[in-house]
Amino acid sequence: MFSHQRLFLLALSKVLLATVVVSMVAAACAPTATPPPAPSAPAAPAAPAPAPSPTARPATSAPAPAATPTPARVAAPAATPAPQVKRSGTLHLITTSNPAHWDPQREVGVAAFWMYLGEFLLNFQPKDGSPAPELVERWDFLNDTTLVLHLRKGVKFHNKPPVNAREFTAQDVVWNLERIRRPGASYVWKSNLERLGKIEAVDKYTVRLTLKSVFAPVLFYLRGNYTANMAMIAKEVEDKLGEDGYKDLNNAIGTGPFMVQRFTPGISGLAVRNPDYWRPGLPYLDAVDFTIVPDKATTIAAYRTGKAEFPMNSDSFFSLPEKEQIERSTSNILFTPRADPYVLGVVPNVNKPPFTDIRLRKAMFLAMDREEALKVNLGGGGYIVGPLDWKVYPGWTWTYEELMKREGFRPKNTPEGQKDIEEAQRLMRELGYGPDNHLKIQAEGCTCFQFINLTNMEIAKSQLQKIWIDISIRIYDSAQWFEQDSSGNFLFRARGYSGPQEPDGQLYTRHHSTGGRNFQKLKDAEVDKLLDEQRRTLDSQKRKKTMMQVQERLWNLYPQVWLHTRNAYIPQQKWVKGLEVTDYKAWGDPATTWIDK
Fold it and tell me: 540-557 and 503-511 helices cross at what angle (nearest 10)?
């Protein structure tokens, strides 16, 4: 069987690789602007408990209809830093990801760095995920299907051509939302906005959204989450450079606390303090830089030597074995535990032979040993899940105990688990395969986010031999990989699709025929009908019931082999303060981050 120790030793053998992390500092100016929400007193995150606690249930209830305004934002006191806060300095980020392009509305892998560059209409309260004002100062539901957004005045885009510190207005909101939902465009989260009807600028600072029908998760989707990026960007960049203008990070223009000074593709980038930032006294840092390194071993070495201070992407979060490895050699790293809100598994393209035959998909589903896969891929630092994560979404899916009694999930060292293997072999024989006639499949792999995009396919290669499937794996670079993914031009790969911490964001975007991340092109009328129905359902209990029906239908289609998710550990050097990392704000608050050294 595939050996976890072999994977671990391979990783250890790379730790001696040289780490190149460029330290870059830029000049800063004192900002002035309209008062924001009061920033919390900067402090280092507490050390994590020995085991990560389950993620709290996300705010998924529908917005209350009628003209119930959001609580008016209390005027914030001046952001006078506490005595211990130190201004200036550069935060050094690290990543192994080399995105194909940097458009925050079209590429998931750049969402984290856009937290430094851009902002959102709404944000999350850090602890419970409830909606919080950001570029929108307050909002009102006039009725079930009319939402009015009142914008913060005096917010400016970065002072870079062709925008040159122009004020952010209602017309920018209209343009951004229309852009994300363009027909036929490759915008990852376009399905999140499909229930919007009219998007109108009432005046310079007011936007009216008219929904086509009741839309339960609308407030959630105006924000997204740590990978579902709904950052507001400047229209002038696209007007001048075309739709791909934001592909080059050097062209990035937002309203956030930092603005790009330079970027070298595949190597590094630097963003400096935005002197026109609207939150008084912020940001504390002069600059933030990032370096792209070749692999996780180099990332670990960079943290050990203090050259890396915080992740630029979730590819630089650590698994339990990696965390323990680092802790054996340094005590300077703080780790914040976080349950990843997405499912890892192997994904066939259901529209390409041989995976058009449901018998093959079911055979693979039944044959995979999920307990072994968890140990090999994550060293036990995670847990087995189905189509939804039962820790992140309690009440919306099966409990762990219920899941482990279902076909395919039953432990393989039990009589029931052995029956699953026997049924898988029967299906393969029915398809014409057997001990003397193996099915040969060339799968794809990528070393970026290896625990997502490669290791589970290596596990499948080992485990599926018992049902006479021989898998070879062709490795692609990250740019090719994600281009194939978004276009649906793949056959078989290990994947895990991040998304908003909202059940609709997990199930609709990956399984509805119009879903923005339905890359395997699944199309099922019953799935579509049920997913549409839950979006129109304000009653939380009825919506949960419909979501269970969605998952039962998906189970009978075997579109993916669901395996597990990880308990991630977010690293930061002890001298990095003010981040306030939580489940809903995995990158903390870049504006209040400071360096204590």
Answer: 40
Report the alpha-carbon distance of residue 526 to residue 580 in Å, rounded: 42
Cis peptide bond prior to 354, omega within 30° of 0: yes
Q: Is 549 helix (H, G, I), strand (E, B) or coil?
A: helix
Beta strands in 301-458 (DSSP E): 310-311, 333-339, 344-348, 382-384, 439-445
Q: For residue 242, which amino acid is it?
A: G
Choose among 285, 388, 375: nearest CA to 341: 388
CA distance 410 to 397: 17
Q: How many whole angstroms separate alpha carbon 17 and alpha carbon 22?
A: 16
- Nearest residue to 131 via CA among 72, 176, 70: 70
The pLDDT tens digits for 15-27 are 333 333 333 333 3
Say whether 27 sits in a helix, a strand or coil: coil
pTM recorded for the entire structure: 0.71
* Per-state percent for the chain, helix, strand, coil, to nearest 5: 30, 20, 50
Q: What is the DSSP string of 285-298?
A: -SEEEEEE-SSHHH
Contacts of residue 185, defined as CB under 8 A and 6 or more positions apart, other chains included, come to 179, 243
Q: What is the pLDDT of residue 538?
A: 84
Take residue 193 and report the two structure tokens written for it. 């906005």
